[in-house]
Amino acid sequence: MGVFEGEKWGAIMGIVAAFVIQCLGWPGNAPELLSLIYMPVGCISGLLSKYYLRHTVPVNAVYVLVACFVRAVITVITSLVVLDASFGDIILKIAIPEYLSTAVVSPLPFITVWLAYKSFHKTRAERTDSELI
User: Fold this and answer.
1) Confidence band, pLDDT 50/70/90 cuts, at residue 104
2) CB of 56 within 8 A of CB of 85?
3) Is the CA virtual torsion 15, 19, 20, 21 positive or negative?
């Protein structure tokens, strides 16, 4: 949402996503910290896409990979606090599979949002199918 609609909606959707994840059940000790992470990420992605980066497939892929990396780092930090496991086990058994599965699955909602907003951002002439000849 931040990439397509700007920083305000990205921050709002970050809070909503954190709330939904908390409602579904977060296995950590501090699920209230998700909103402190997701809100700035949504806002920053909106600012970057608005002022610095263009909407191209490679740029969007970089967004996804960076977001997956940030999420993996957060998972490692929370796992080190919560679990009684070694750093290597956390990286190999939790962080890398999470990173790869998120990188594979995350383009699906991204494409869905893009398709939904593609028709939403049409001009009046495009929405009413009236052509100027």
Assistant:
1) confident
2) no
3) positive
* DSSP track, 57-121: HHHHHHHHHHHHHHHHHHHHHHHHHHS---HHHHIIIIIHHHHHHHHHHTHHHHHHHHHHHHHHT
What are the pLDDT digits (tens) for 41-80? Answer: 888 888 887 777 776 778 777 877 887 888 888 888 888 8
3-state secondary structure of 52: coil
For residue 26, the one-letter residue type is W
Residue 12: name the closest of 40, 53, 32 by CA. Answer: 40
Q: Which residues of 8-42 are buried (b: 16+ CB within 10 A; e: fewer)?
A: ebbbbbbeebbeeeeeeeeeeeebeebbeebbebb
- What is the value of pTM for the model shown? 0.58
9 Cβ neighbours under 8 A, 6+ residues apart: 1, 2, 42, 46
- Nearest CA to 4 out of 125, 126, 110, 132 is that of 110
